[in-house]
Amino acid sequence: MALGVESACINHLSIEATHRCKQCGKPVCGACVVPAPTGNFCSEHCRDSYQQFAERAEELERNAPKPKRMWRFRRFILRLTIVVAVVALVVVLATYMGFDVPIVGEFVKQILIAGSD
Ligand SMILES: [Zn+2]
Ligand SMILES: [Zn+2]
Fold first, then answer.
1. Which of 29, 66, 79, 113 could join 9 via S-S bond, C-beta 3.0 to 4.6 A?
2. Neighbours of 26 (CB within 10 A)
3. Ligand 1: distance of its center to the CA of 99 in Å?
């Protein structure tokens, strides 16, 4: 697998590298590469470092707020905004057409009176 590494293996200067360490980025040849389920590494040290990093990242992700929940919350706010807007529109229309809307109607009337000046 050519990765466009274009440099020699860090351990064999005469052999062209075929892999690049996922952790430190050093070029290694097929004989030196340390393959792992998480990727290819130049050494076991790098593999373990990356594994720790991956586990840490996973842990952070687990502790982060769930995006699904966030989306639900946003949808709730959106619905709430629509309901409030519709209710407000109905109240304004009702007041404008002469209906007596309790509490809010008085407030809307004030606005309509102020606007008609
Ligand atoms: Zn490495
Ligand atoms: Zn090598």
1. 29
2. 19
3. 77
